[in-house]
Structure formats: structure tokens, C-alpha cells
Amino acid sequence: MKIKLSAFLLFLLLSFSAENILNAQNKIWSVDDCIQYALNKNIQVQKAVVSNSIYNEDVNLAKSARYPSLSGSVRQNFNWNNVTDNTTGATVFKGTNGVNISASSGMTIYNGSRIRNGVRQTETNYEADKYNTEVIKETVSLNVLNAYLQVLYAEELVRNSHDQITSLDQQVTLASERLKLGAIANSDYLQVKSQLATEKQTLAIAQSQLAINRITLMQIMEYPIANDFQIEHPNLDSLINQKRAPDPVEIYQTALGIKPEVKNAELLKKSSQIGIDLAKAGHYPNIALNTGVSSSYSGYQTSYSTSYQPGSFGSQLSRNISPSIGLSASIPIYLNRQVKTNVEVAKLNSNTAELNELNTKDILRKAIEQSCQDVISSQIEFDAATEAYNAVKESYDVASEKFNQGIMNSVDFLIQKTTFITTESSYLQSKYKLIFSYKVLDFYAGLPLSFKK
């Protein structure tokens, strides 16, 4: 019975493992899947999360300064000296055994609002670092999107190259039959055959580029290189040439309220301003309440192993309890310009933070202006590429028909075919450039990078 149960459990385990492997192999990765995987695995994102946890601990430490501190100590002492015995008059070497126990507590009553401002500053830094984490995540997401589109572009090039080879195969066969019939010269046949070899080379280059693009995407995702890695092919028709007329001022105003790099810069400026208040607190006294309690125990022993015990350990500690309480004030009078220097440095740091905020917003404005122009330029390029592609394809279709009917020589036909292949490649390039420019504009407007509607 035990053997059957073990065999059954082993069967379930193997089935479960095989199912997981099969699911992993058959997974089709959407751009959302790729981005989410990259965010979970990216080292920089993970380091940013750890950094945010450290800032959170700084907040907890700053808040704990509001409460009293408590510490205790225990000290054991052994002392030896020569002592004259009053009864016998003899001098003996005696040792003293002493124990001191104490506990103390202190609490800051006033320190120029250092604690309150310290809490404010650490909380501000914590929030700023969270936005910094979001900046890193957005950068990773954009990189994944770009790599994802490059894979789609390379796959289309490979498909088109396959189609060209299939078409040329048929045309080589047709040219071979005509050569046997004496309808064309051997040079015409060789030219078509040479073009087929060129297209096979083009296919090899396209396949190599596709492999490189796939590896680039997997590496950005921190995904182990796998031959069975496949991405989803979304319907991009709705994203092509939306005839947008983006307003950079409007998009910039939207971005100022949502982009994490702006929030990060604003909070760091706020933190630096709090730093000025912290530095100024050095001008004010520090007043603290201190309390404590102590007790001691003392015992004697001689070199002759005799001992004298003036009360038990517990009774001595109880009898010798000594509590204390007091106020202390530390008043700065002259500190070699330390406080004044700290204040001036804090003000300069605040100026730097303000300039960093302006620079961050300026960089964002320029990026949005460039993105808007990219969309306009990409739309114009795509329109021109589409028009050229349609015209050249129509001309190529006519040329193919003439070549198949034997009323066009191979030289003229191959010129038309080469022009068509070049135009088709330019069309695909402009198509994916346009899609990426749209998604970047969406990114600044706070829209998701997903291809889902």
C-alpha cells in the first residue's frame, strides 16, 4: 500500500513539473508581461527598493528621538591593600569586592526644534526616494518597450524576406524553363538566380538581427536566454498614423503633475529647506531632563580565605539605593563659527536643490518638445513612405506580371524588385518609428505603455 501511495505521489509531482515546464515553454509574452518581469528582476529596481527601506528606517530613528532613552550598567570591582587589625595589631592583606548597579534615563525637552525638523526631513527624503524608484521603473519600462518593438520590426523583415525568396524561387523556375526553350539568354537566367542568392543572404542577415534583438529584449528583462522565447503580436493598425497634433505646452503641464522625477526634485528642494532650519537650531540651547538610580554592594575577604560579610547582597542593594533627577542645559556661546557655517552651507544646498528642480523641469520640457516634434515628423515620414510603398508595389506587381508573361527582361524586372524591397524596408522602419513616438508621447501624458485598448 505504501509503495502504491509513493508511486502515486511521484506521478503527481512529475505531472506538475512537466506541466510547469510546458507552460513556460508555450508562454507568449505580451509587452505588459515583459515590462512586469523586468521590473521584478531588474537589479537597479531592486537596489532602489532596498534604498527606500533604508530611508524608512531613518524615519523611524528620527521619530524615536522624541522619547526618553534608558540605559543600565553593572560594574564589579576587586581591590586589595594592607590593613591593620585593631584587635591583634597585625597587618593583613585584605581584598574588597564591590558591585555597582545603576540605570539612567534622559529626555530632550528643548533643542531648537531639531527633533521635529529631523522627522520632517527624513519623511521628505523617504517620499523623494520613492519617486526616484518610480523614475528607474519608468526608464526600464521604456527600454523594454523599445526592445519589444525592435523584435516585432525584425520579425516583419524576416517574414518579408521569406516571401521574397518564395517569389524568386518561382521566378527562377520560370526563367529556367524559358532558358531551356531558348526564350531568354543564359545571362538573364543567371541574373535572376543571383538575385535569389542575394535575397537568401538578406534573409540570413534579417534572422541574425532578429536573434540579436530577441537577446537584447531578454537581457533588458533579466530573463535567461531561451530559444523558445516568443512575444505576442498585437494589432498595431489602430496605432498607425492617428494624425495627432500634440500640444507640447499642454502635455508639459500634465507631466509636471505626474512625472516622478519632478516630484523627486520638488521634495529634495523641500528637504534642503528644512535643512536650513536644522542648521539654525545650533544657535539655541539644548535642555534635557535626566533621571537615574544606583545602588551598590561591598564585601571583604582576606588572604587567609576568611571573609567578612557586612549584610547580604540583597539587603545592601536595598539600603544603598540612590535616585537622582535633574535638568541640564547646553548653551552655545562661541563655537568657532561652526553654526554660522552650517547655516550658510545649508542655504547653498537649498539653492542647489532649487536649481536641480529647475533643471529637471527644463529637461522634461525639452524632452516633451522633442517628442511632439518626433510624432509630427514620424507621421510625415510614414505618409511619404506609405505613398511610396503603394506606388512601388503597384509598379512591381505590373513588372512581375510582365516578367511572368515574358515581355520584360530580367534586368528591368530585378531593378523594379530591388526598388520594391528597399521601399518596403523603409515603410516598415517608418511604421515602427511612428508607433514608438506615439508611445513615448503617451508616456509623458501619463498613459500606459500597453498595447491593450
Question: What does the model show?
Answer:
- With 453 residues, the chain is α+β, with helices and mostly antiparallel strands.
- It folds into two domains: 28-66 and 112-284 and 334-444, Outer membrane efflux proteins (OEP), CATH 1.20.1600; 74-110 and 287-331.
- It contains ten helices and seven strands.
- The strands form two sheets. Strands 2, 3, 5, 6 and 7 form a five-stranded antiparallel beta sheet that branches. The chain has a two-stranded parallel sheet with strand order 1-4.
- A hairpin with a 4-residue loop joins strand 5 (286-302) and strand 6.
- Helix 4 (114-181) packs antiparallel against helix 5 and helix 4 (114-181) runs antiparallel to helix 7.
- It starts with a helix and ends in a 9-residue tail after the last helix.
- Mean pLDDT is 87; it is low at 7-24 and 301-308.
